[in-house]
Design goal:
Eight copies of one chain form a homooctamer. By secondary structure, chain A is an alpha/beta fold. In chain A, about 35% of the residues lie in helices and about 20% in strands. Chain A has nine helices and eleven strands.
Chain lengths: ~230, ~230, ~230, ~230, ~230, ~230, ~230, ~230
């Protein structure tokens, strides 16, 4: 049971931040990568007593199978490696949409992580895929859809140039996500990250490598403010 | 004279993006660090024909003196190392404000760069200084002012922990700026940057080291959307 | 048999420092990661002739099974990946306790390594889990327990901010342990390490990434001095 | 004037943590490197109203001259690049002493920073200089003095091997300080730091490169506990 | 005097590769940065006996003044920091031209180094300046001129995205030069270099940071082959 | 179906650049490493409607088996990990040849990737293997064959010295490919890359680590120009 | 068959340096790690026609089994991961011996690689194991044996301090080998390498991480000179 | 006065290792870079009581002037930035010579540091300058002189390829010295160092960047053994 400070232990391995949904508008999101299935089950069960929305990131298929067998009301998004709950997918809570733009086919897992997060947080999503800068007319072919978005998330690996180009074409908040796609001197995404941080288009902000979730959380936070009056 | 593509050369060293203000809402901003005074004078003069707003970053005092002697209507902000023009400071164009929060006295130059940029772009600013996490009650003493902002910019060097703590306390878009303040293993800001990218509070986005301008540009872009109805 | 210099060979692969317990107060601790089961068995057997306390770190379950089958009196701590011996767990040898504080559920293995080491060295332990800075009231909910400790060990991955915050709240010796938990730019713990070394709270000292054992050894060494009169 | 939260602004550039001395036993220490003389003067003047002990680190001779001309009661320690105040040097507050051991003549500035800090915090200091491992009998010639200390601070640049060797010889808490002394692949102290973090002697803890102050603060904190009964 | 192996010593500090012009088509080029004026004068004098073409790179204005005072027939290119000789500038030796494209005003020194080298090697040059990707219509405004070149040199600092975009638009050999322009995480050009090596447009090759000379030498070598029949 | 912008989607995961062959002379090349077999099959099928030439790099044997079972007309090159199609191998389209020179037996996979790419693009290839600089007479034994090439590709891991030596002996365009062969401080090819970028022979250009394809694409682009009249 | 330049191809994947034994005193040594069993068999067979001494390094047990089944006269050294041939082990060819000193049990594989190489090259070896600096009396217990050697090889991972200490005690040529043993900030041996390069004992030279073979080759080369008259 | 342990303090800043000359054959060498003139004078005066040979490295001209004014019998080698004493230059103490080979004119300071050290230690030196691998016939022109040496020191910056090439041509102990000469990705010598550590010629050993002294000390130590009978 949560104590008066809004804190509730799960056995001896976790301390849930029960107040978080009230304080910040969305419950604690669970990072699944370094936790055991048993720990994730315990956390999910406890959270089901406090919230109707659960988001677990970086859950592989094997863990997902074990968890969904134990905890009712969860849905596994295989491309995004995410578990969501409890119950049916939420409806958009506000007008407008967020564009999730990715440079290559290989960046899709990260794009899906962003899209599922956004939908859980009540934003509508438009997906634009495989518009990297080496064939730049592909980007122009989708430019209107991007320009009409309230917020843009730009995802790219390798040389990470997509946000720089977009930043010069689109007058909307733009969040860049470097991915670990590439090889050799790509350094598992560090070059893409560096390129995004050093882009000459002003106003692009950046999140950690492969962090589709973080970009989506930030985008939803902007979206909520933008559309609070609607 | 700008050609039909909205491009205008300045001698043989620059190609102004004249359409930018119409396309993106703010004219090209000039990065002063690697340009000569002569180049900056040439660019400022040419821009004065096309816009009433000029922003030059990373201009040291010596260059500033030469440029203001040649180009009328410029104002030098010594703490921020910036030149703005043309004419008097702009008035806030929308309601609300942006909180520019910095962890230590040494981070002030970057905070000033952010504040001047925001004011040039029409946003009101509240400055909160020296509230680093090693004396965390200082932060709590200013928390309400931060929570009421439309967007928060959090600036910190050394271990860069301020955005993580703020991200768990404030439900607003939060942009983190690592600074190069520190020594030894601080690696001129790389550790602060890394800490901000790896923060466990979701939704924090990050810009380049010492890039107060970039954070402000992104914040203003969010602010414009948020308050577009006013 | 140990020669006059207090040195005893184990076959041709090890040279035990037999005098160590007398010289430093605790026998040689065996790092298990890069040694074969056969080597570890040989070392354990030889040490059983000289000491009643054995500590082996970084021993996985498979090796542990082989070793405990050969050497009597050993106990395997699965969460901590450690073997201890010989015989029952030692009792606390002094008053007071050491707080082992960790930021997230994923840091538990390192916390357990620290706790088992401390108990083997005669110190009582209080475990405080999942109090990372992104939900800082969780930390405040446990603050008194931490403040009453004789020494504090603070364990965190990702942005490694916990020791900085604690260092401003607690007036006790504080040892920080970065963990390799995280991804992308976390660089397997290098960012957490860097943040801890650059923390603005004075007096925090740091050990190697994931080195729960080393932090505990240092903490016990302080604890022994602090409570030598009891 | 400090408000009820124990926080007091100095103009618009600093926010003093007035409660710190009561909370943690020593007032806020001022890092001088990135602050202007004017800021340091303002901070020193304000602190003089609240405490009789002031410590400013990384103050070069030029700044020191300006500050001592304005603020009475300060003393400049040129070798250590520190300012202390207010009034005469404090007397040892407890029995025993701390050994400040350094590997080479070039490490002296860091050793002096540690020694001045310790003396300000009430601990007696023994200085042992130029006992690096390449002439290891020099270390043995001073070993008894080191062994009798309550805490040992070991300072070394280049290959940073001194703490490893000491850690196998001395059964006391041992804090290592890497210095930036060296060239080429020394990487301004990163190799010494790395060597200290990877030392095979257990129980050595480490602080940032050249951070004599931080090591001393930690050592004094241990010393206070050790000798609290005397 | 050159010996039979085509090798000629200059005092005791250099060994000229006299045969190089015959063997490779262009005499040895002298890297001026780490040589004294006296050494450069000695080398220039000796080379004047063997060739009518001299190229010295990275010669600052002070050295240039001393050298031109001693060695007749040299010309100093201040923007490019180069000395050339002997006599008047050479005429184009073949048809077609090479496009030297640079992303920003700050990249001009490197662009000039490339252009002077190309002209010394007999190729005609078209300079296209300030066409970085953040205002991509500036690039399209110059695209035909670039497409008609025999070889393209693309120079950019910061995020280094120009070659990727050009590589998808232009079917000619394309050599990319990263520059050290930028700050913070730009790492003095390493990010631009990394981005160029990881670009998704195939067929872009890269030279060292700021190495305008090397790119020009490679481009001239291609140009010679391309136009060998004319 | 491709729309008017020359862009054609493949389900929701790819956007083919159909115009590329017309625009740049060769169709889009598919990087297979991070794509699933299903995605590669979809892409290959769609491309078969638009081009007679298909090149897929980094396809392992398991994926290749699945793809060739579904898509007719493909050929798998096991040493090069490449799929080519559609139909029989193309004939040389121009005179002369390209020398693919590699330093060691272990560099052969990269050399084969380069050779297959060149042949697909219509250039004849001469392979020269195992002529690393530690037995430099092996290189001299093959020097005439290298000198007669139109373009030279030099492939080396470890210390990456081959291009520097070749660059001083051969007056032809020379493209260097670092490989990830080596261990310890080789840093998976970063040292070889660095050595190639810093080579003192002018005019060598470099591609990403292990990027035999990229070097070949650049070489073919030069070759086409060189032999356009024949 | 070897041509007149002393070069002999093995199929299309290797070019043997047949003259090497005559030129340098020992035949080509084969690095087995990145070669297939088939390639190693081909090379071994061809070399058997030219030399009575074969050394293959980094051959795992599976490859070794395949190779020894095909090529007669080879012996596999499992601890050292080496194959030697042809026939019985060679006898020492000169007086004196080389000391192979290693810091820990985990460094044994590298030590064995050094020892087997030395014996193949005709030098006698004394092995001294587990004498790391954290229990420095273990080293003193073996010091006379080390001092009497003609050359000393010192092998250590982690903080790599052994060569610095030895360098101050022993007046003989000393070659240091860093190993990849360690974890966290050990960076797979880079810290040990850095410590060895920055050691304050003069005259220590260093080889690549884990390169026991290279150190032994260098030591044997010195030994040959030292004892050439005997 | 030296105590019984062979240790003598110089004021409070140094502890001379008086026994070193007897123990290791050469007195302590003083690294001058981070010491003040006053400290160097104190050390030199004290050493003059114990030895007739003094070597101080990294002493700039300004310090040298102050020191030679105070301490009689010293000689300053400006190119090598070294002070030697006391009295006239020593004569060769043994037959044979050591070849100091450097790749470029810019590497001369390091070569001189090596040569002066060798002469002080009693070895004769042959200097071979500017024989880098990009004009490899220059190296062949000097090859016999190198082959006849007892030990070879190979010095190179940039890509550091000289030792690899020499290692395949010369059957003598070979010590490589990377220099910080280069720019951009040369990383102040780290690439040259890496190339030398990864060279495919066996038996090359390496010292720290720019460490001509260390290479010479090691070479002299080998030379002494080689010629001990003469």
């Amino acid at each position: 049971m949560a104590d008066q400070l809004g804190v509730e232990p799960v056995n001896d391995y976790a301390l849930l931040d029960i107040d978080r949904e009230k304080r910040l508008g969305f419950p604690e999101v669970v990072f699944g990568e370094n936790k055991t299935s048993a720990q994730l089950i315990g956390i999910a069960e406890r959270m089901s007593a406090h919230t109707s929305r659960l988001l677990m990131t970086r859950v592989d298929a094997a863990k997902a199978e074990q968890i969904t067998a134990c905890v009712p009301g969860l849905h596994y998004h295989a491309e995004a490696c995410m578990l969501t709950g409890f119950g049916p997918a939420p409806k958009p809570e506000r007008g407008g949409y967020i564009a999730v733009v990715c440079a290559g086919t290989s960046d899709l897992r990260v794009a899906q992580e962003a899209a599922v997060t956004l939908e859980m947080m009540g934003s509508r999503v438009e997906r634009i895929t495989d518009v990297g800068v080496a064939g730049i007319h592909r980007l122009f072919a989708r430019l209107e859809l991007i320009r009409e978005a309230d917020v843009v998330i730009a995802i790219a690996g390798m040389e990470g140039a997509l946000p720089s180009v977009l930043g010069g074409l689109v007058a909307k908040p733009l969040i860049a996500v470097p991915t670990s796609i590439g090889y050799g001197t790509g350094l598992n995404g560090l070059i893409a990250l560096g390129a995004m941080l050093n882009g000459c288009a002003p106003g692009v902000t950046v999140v950690n490598i492969d962090n589709g979730f973080g970009a989506a959380y930030a985008a939803a936070s902007i979206h909520k403010q933008t559309r609070r009056e609607t």
